[in-house]
């Protein structure tokens, strides 16, 4: 295979992983399909855009602040709203987050208008092994992978991380062990939003964006999650890279429309033949 | 849960009354009202269709738009090939049934979230296929369908009656399923699929039957829609918004019965019209707020509210009197 | 809890009552006012475009009503514009067109933005025999359905691409190959097809020809394939957001060519604003540019007068959407005046005969209802500003290599 195609796919895949990791965590731990996720990403991108316009802050520098702000927003939404129906059937929580998404979407259209925006920070490109790659994308991808790795460490190493993993494995047992489950839910949802905000500020240098794009990011998060396996951080990374490679290869070999189709087909095939995804383990459903 | 006001007969009477009004509408209302009524029947058909798989069997299906869009395309293509309109519609219903029967056994092995995601993926895959096979479907350029001759009043009447017929058929089928073996089996599956299986319910056959029923009515509605608007394109008919809206409507009314979906459709459309005309730039957000409120205060849908009590309070002015009455008896 | 529920109940009842009343309380059309219905996308994906149409309509309306209205026979009739937001939802566009015609009793309709939604609205208007003015639909597939009531102010797509092919071959005879990438959507697809079909007639061979689907997030694979095709000319179609992304990714991959065309990117201010220096060198065709110098007897008077009025009002340059939308109503006004009536049959016949020069350019509807072809401007971004390369009469600069 062509080096350019391979590298395109890997870089894109790193970005996809970052888009999906928060979504996957929330899905795995809370058993909630968070329809707000795409809007969180776009909100993060807008915050990065305005931080740059107002203070000249590079999105990579404003990222921690944006991520923190989104954590707060996510925590409050989960604590105040979603926690009340968190154990309802899939459809109920999905409809709830869909309703919340409509509110956030409307607020963004009013606040930021529907005009597509772009952060003009073109950082140039480099040639690797005969392939050409943009530096901003490589940097965003490297940061995305670093953030994902950091999240993995937090989940493994910290007390809160262990509590989150415990709740994911068995909510009731965790509660018996003294884990305050609602609190852990809110923190997890906050982390999900925080990762979306971070992803958004990274995406703002790579893609032009507008409120109409929320569904696009959400769609990618879905596919990555299913390919990689629900709720697992390494799964999101593997799923993201796999989707990036699939799209890149199908795009080069067949055509742009078939590339998008290929992502969905692989996802559907995995759902049917290996529903736990490439890295997922059974029993976490 | 037949706490619905005075029981099933009252519900049936109301439905029959509404049907009578809808039949008379082309003669008494203007064409915009006829169009709204056609949309009401369209969404009733979709909601009742979804209810078989989503309500009775409890499978969170988001495949509604896949069937709807497939029906629209099959109907449109048949019509363009010279098939008379009503036959094209039936062909679309049949095509969707075959599609669902072929897809069902595989897709319905998935449960919960996995099924939800799988069914939503079907919609996206269908949209992309319709877009890619441009020579056949017109691709992104869309597909023209011959406009029905005879003027707007005639066309309005034809499409209203056609949609009404599909909605009525879906309603009657629901009543039959509700009282029959299939409804019982599907409820068992919803409660506990493994237990149902052990008790000898052929779960795969039952689920697939529900999926096929769902597909037929959504497909018929889609085909009539295509003839009605005379132009379809992939993003319009394979619409994610539509696929999300239909379950919201059913949940609003109450899933898993014959009346809940209808109540939900009427309530949702009334709210949508009200919000749309009063909140120009905020309608999306206001609709979102209402959805959130509904999830909190009406988790079982409007029909699960204890209407007799509420109405009793309106009439008697409080529980005290009725309690006193109960005590006296 | 009970209280809350009661509130719900009353709210729903209220909603039902309002919906019921909507049909019954339809206002009667006043005989001495001309009503024009405008279903516009004021929210949703096409909100920016819908708002542009509204600005143009309002500018026309203010001038017409300031002059006392439109002259119909011996009387002056003021004009009322009835605007609804169809939320960029095709179903609602059709629904609102019907509401405008049947409940609001409008005399004429303007079409929404884009070829797809225009088709839906025109289908409804056709059923009622109400003339509908389309200002932003240029795909011939919209006009080839035999609709009698549809009139469009944009010229056919093929006019755009043939002028372009001719000009580029003349200015850069050594360019021989072209790569075409288009969005799988009504207008962008039509523009891509028109170029692919026209290219061989002017000595260009098409070395890449693909469509991308609506909602494509990333184009790196596609652009890498185009890079491998090594074309002299890259021709891309899509909506503004697609084109911004495509141009950015071309820079990312170091993809370049002697000529880069993005239809209709530079015709929109948003494209140039968002891309900054990356927009430089990109060319496009457009249906109108404010550098044109038409003199007219309409409410605006001349291209320059329209331009000045627009800049004074909005603080930015108008684009072809603004001009074409205002021109659609100018043409309707002329037809009403010529007919001396607001009877739809007479106005429809008068629209067929309209042959005028407006601030926007000549308007003369052909047999299919489309405005006749003329020399449409080809524009290029040079040093951050949009300049006209063609036609000769209003040329501001020569084609620069990308």
How would you summarize this macromolecular structure in one to three sentences?
The complex is a heterotrimer of chains A (285), B (329) and C (402). With 285 residues, chain A is mainly alpha-helical.
**CATH class division of chain B:** Mainly Alpha
Q: Any idea of the CATH topology of chain B?
A: ABC transporter involved in vitamin B12 uptake, BtuC
What general outline of chain B do the C-alpha atoms trace? globular
Shape field of chain A: globular
Q: Which percent range describes the beta-strand content of chain A?
A: under 5%
Main beta-sheet strand count, sense and barrel state of chain A: 2 strands, antiparallel
The largest sheet of chain B, given as strand count, sense and whether it forms a barrel, is: 2 strands, antiparallel
Q: Gap between N and C termini of chain A, in Å? A: 36 Å
Q: Helical element count of chain B?
A: 16
Helix content of chain A: over 70%
Uncertain segments of chain B are 1-6, 316-329
Judging by the overall fold, what is the CATH architecture of chain A? Orthogonal Bundle
Q: In which order are the strands of the major sheet of chain B placed?
A: 1-2
Encode the helix/strand succession of chain A as letters. HHHHEEHHHHHHH
Largest interface: B-C, 48 and 48 residues
Computed over alpha carbons, the radius of gyration of chain B is 21 Å
Number of domains of chain B: 1
Structural class of chain A: mainly alpha
Percent helix of chain B, as a range, is over 70%
Oligomer: heterotrimer
Characterise this structure:
The complex is a heterotrimer of chains A (285), B (329) and C (402). Chain A has helices at residues 3-30, 37-55, 59-80, 90-112, 135-157, 159-169, 171-176, 181-203, 214-228, 233-253, 256-273, and strands at residues 125-128, 131-134. Chain A is an all-alpha fold and 285 residues long. Chain B is mostly helical and 329 residues long. In chain B, 78% of the residues lie in helices and 1% in strands. The longest helix of chain B has 29 residues, at 151-179. Chain C contains 13 helices and 16 strands. In chain C, the strands form 5 sheets. Chain C has a 5-stranded parallel sheet, with helices on both faces. The radius of gyration of chain C is 23 Å and the shape is globular. Chains in contact: A-B, A-C, B-C. At the B-C interface, α2, α5, α7, α11 and α13 of B face α1, α3, α4 and α7 of C.
């Amino acid at each position: 295979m062509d080096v350019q195609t391979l590298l395109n796919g890997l870089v894109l895949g790193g970005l996809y992983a970052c888009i999906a990791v928060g979504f996957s965590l929330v899905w795995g731990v809370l058993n909630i399909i968070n329809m707000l996720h795409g809007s969180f990403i776009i909100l993060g991108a807008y915050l990065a855009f305005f931080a740059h316009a107002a203070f000249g802050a590079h999105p990579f520098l404003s990222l921690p602040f944006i991520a923190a702000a989104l954590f707060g927003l996510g925590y409050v939404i989960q604590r105040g709203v979603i926690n009340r129906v968190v154990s309802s059937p899939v459809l109920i929580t999905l409809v709830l987050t869909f309703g919340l998404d409509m509110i956030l979407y409307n607020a963004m259209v009013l606040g930021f208008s529907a005009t597509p925006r772009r952060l003009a920070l073109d950082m140039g490109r480099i040639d690797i092994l005969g392939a050409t790659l943009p530096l901003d994308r490589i940097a965003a991808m490297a940061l995305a992978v670093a953030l994902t790795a950091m999240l993995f460490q937090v989940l493994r190493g910290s007390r809160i991380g262990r509590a989150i993993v415990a709740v994911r494995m068995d909510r009731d047992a965790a509660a018996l062990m003294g884990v305050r489950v609602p609190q852990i839910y809110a923190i997890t949802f906050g982390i999900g939003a925080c990762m979306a905000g971070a992803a958004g500020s990274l995406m703002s240098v790579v893609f032009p964006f507008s409120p109409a794009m929320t569904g696009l990011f959400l769609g990618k998060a879905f596919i990555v999650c299913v390919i990689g396996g629900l709720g697992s951080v390494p799964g999101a990374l593997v799923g993201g890279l796999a989707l990036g490679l699939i799209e890149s290869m199908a795009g080069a070999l067949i055509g742009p429309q078939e590339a998008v189709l290929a992502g969905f087909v692989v996802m559907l095939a995995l759902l049917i033949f290996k529903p736990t995804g490439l890295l997922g383990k059974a029993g976490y459903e | 849960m037949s706490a619905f006001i005075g029981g099933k007969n009252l519900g049936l009477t109301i439905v029959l009354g509404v049907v009578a009004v809808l039949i008379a509408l082309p003669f008494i209302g203007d064409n915009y009202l006829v169009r709204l009524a056609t949309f009401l029947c369209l969404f009733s058909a979709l909601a009742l269709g979804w209810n078989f798989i989503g309500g009775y069997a409890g499978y969170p299906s988001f495949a509604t738009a896949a069937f709807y869009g497939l029906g629209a395309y099959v109907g449109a293509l048949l019509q363009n090939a010279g098939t008379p309109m009503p036959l094209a519609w039936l062909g679309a219903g049949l095509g969707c049934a075959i599609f669902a029967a072929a897809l069902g056994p595989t897709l319905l092995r998935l449960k919960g979230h996995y099924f939800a995601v799988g069914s939503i993926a079907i919609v996206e895959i269908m949209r992309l296929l319709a877009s890619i096979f441009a020579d056949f479907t017109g691709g992104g350029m869309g597909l023209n369908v011959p406009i029905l001759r005879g003027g707007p009043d005639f066309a309005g009447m034809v499409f209203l009656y056609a949609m009404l017929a599909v909605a009525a058929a879906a309603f009657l089928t629901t009543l039959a399923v509700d009282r029959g073996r299939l409804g019982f089996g599907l409820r068992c599956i919803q409660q506990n699929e493994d237990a149902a299986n052990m008790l000898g319910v052929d779960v795969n056959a039952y689920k697939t039957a529900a999926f096929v029923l769902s597909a037929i009515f959504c497909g018929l509605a889609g085909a009539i829609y295509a003839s009605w608007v005379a132009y379809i394109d992939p993003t319009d008919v394979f619409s994610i918004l539509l696929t999300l809206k239909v379950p919201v409507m059913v949940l609003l009314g109450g899933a898993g019965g014959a009346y809940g979906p209808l109540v939900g459709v009427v309530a949702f459309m009334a709210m949508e019209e009200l919000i749309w005309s009063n909140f120009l730039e905020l309608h999306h957000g206001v609709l979102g707020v209402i959805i959130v409120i509904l999830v909190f205060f009406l988790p079982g849908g409007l029909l699960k509210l204890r209407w007799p009590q509420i109405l009793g309070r309106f009439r008697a002015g409080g529980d005290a009197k009725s309690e006193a009455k109960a005590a006296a008896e | 809890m009970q209280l809350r529920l009661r509130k719900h109940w009353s709210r729903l009842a209220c909603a039902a009552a309002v919906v019921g009343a909507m049909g019954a309380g339809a206002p009667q059309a006043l005989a001495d006012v001309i009503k024009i219905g405008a279903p516009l996308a004021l929210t949703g994906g096409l909100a920016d475009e819908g708002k542009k149409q509204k600005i143009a309509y309002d500018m026309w309306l203010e001038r017409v009503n300031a002059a006392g209205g439109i002259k119909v026979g011996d009387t002056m009739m003021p004009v009322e514009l009835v605007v609804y937001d169809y939320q960029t939802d095709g179903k609602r566009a059709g629904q609102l067109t019907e509401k405008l015609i049947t409940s609001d009793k409008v005399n004429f309709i303007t079409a929404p933005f884009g070829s797809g939604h225009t088709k839906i609205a025109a289908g409804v208007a056709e059923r009622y025999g109400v003339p509908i003015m389309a200002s932003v639909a240029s795909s011939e597939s919209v006009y080839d359905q035999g609709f009698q009531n549809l009139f469009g102010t944009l010229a056919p797509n093929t006019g755009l691409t043939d002028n372009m092919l001719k000009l580029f071959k003349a200015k850069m005879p050594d360019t021989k190959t072209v790569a075409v990438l288009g969005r799988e959507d009504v207008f962008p697809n039509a523009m891509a097809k028109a170029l692919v079909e026209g290219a061989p007639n002017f000595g260009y061979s098409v070395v890449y020809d693909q469509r991308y689907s609506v909602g494509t997030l990333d184009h790196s694979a596609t652009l890498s394939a185009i890079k491998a095709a090594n074309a002299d000319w890259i021709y891309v179609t899509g909506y503004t957001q697609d084109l911004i992304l495509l141009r950015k990714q071309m820079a990312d991959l170091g993809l370049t060519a002697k000529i880069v065309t993005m239809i209709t990117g530079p015709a929109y201010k948003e494209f140039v604003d968002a891309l900054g220096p990356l927009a430089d060198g990109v060319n496009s065709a457009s249906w109108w540019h404010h550098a044109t110098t038409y003199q007219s007897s309409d409410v605006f008077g001349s291209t320059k007068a329209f331009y000045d009025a627009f800049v004074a009002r909005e603080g930015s340059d108008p684009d072809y959407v603004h001009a074409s939308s205002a021109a659609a109503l100018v043409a309707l006004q002329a037809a009403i005046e010529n007919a001396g009536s607001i009877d739809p049959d007479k106005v429809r016949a008068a629209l067929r005969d309209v042959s005028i020069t407006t601030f926007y350019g000549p308007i003369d509807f052909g047999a299919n209802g489309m405005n006749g072809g003329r020399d449409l401007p080809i524009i290029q971004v040079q040093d951050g500003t949009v300049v006209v390369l063609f036609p000769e009469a209003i040329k501001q600069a020569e084609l620069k290599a990308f």
